[in-house]
Amino acid sequence: MAAAKWAARMRALDWKGTPLGPREQWPQSLKTIVRMMLDSRYAMWMLWGPELTFFCNDAYLPTVGIKRDWVLGARSDKVWEEIWPDIGPRINKVLTSGESTWDEGLLLFLGRSGFLEEIYHTFSYSPIYDDRSQIAGVLCVVTEVTNRVLGERQLRILRDLAARSIGVKTVKESLAASIDVLAQSPFDVPLAAVYLSTGNSAQLLAATRTPPPGCIPTAVDIAASAAPWPVSEPCSGRGARVIPASGPSK
Fold first, then answer.
1. How far apart are the first and last CA of the chain?
2. Diameter of the chain by CA atoms?
3. CATH fold group of domain 2-144
4. So where are the chain's domains?
5. Which of 135, 9, 130 is closest to 68 using CA atoms?
6. Residue ranges of the alpha helices (H) in the chain?
7. pLDDT (tens digit, 9 = 90+) per residue, 141-173?
């Protein structure tokens, strides 16, 4: 039903206001490839003509995200402006050489939700032809593999943490080894710091990267009510404490 709604939206669009003109004047090859794409349950998008006019099917709408209200009939380099430096050369290669491309698990930072997201796709760009058998556009068949890539990466972190713990003899060695592992995965752990407590104070032992001055304290008075981090609860054995993005509550 959703695919039918998207097809209805395509029919309702005033194509006269686009470089392609009225649908009745479209070449049969364009009509055929659009119908094939709309009928498929596999995520696809395509561009057609010198103005790179954008089409997609319902299965591709999650990737389009918040742009879905205006992408249909827009220029593809406008739709994917944030990743065009990555995909533009691939598309140009298909348009000029007729050779298909293949990328597996390619990292792209998409603005599909109003902010840039770390997204991974496996996809192929293939040439599509007009009624004169000339290359007229590009068809993309795509699978998002973000969950798989992130899951494998996070499992690798856990594996490496376990491996690095073998043979360590002191707490300091263990913490330093853990920080060294986490430092290799900045996308998953942008910043991690470990403190070693002695009595009522905790000293910064190591961090995954050098933070800006004043970002994290080098020492914390555990008992102080105005401590920069609320560490008294974890240190007293009452469990972890989650600090909101806005910082510790006053």
1. 51
2. 82
3. Beta-Lactamase (3.30.450)
4. 2-144, 149-235
5. 9
6. 2-12, 28-39, 61-64, 76-79, 84-97, 146-164, 171-182, 232-235
7. 999 999 999 999 899 999 988 888 888 888 888
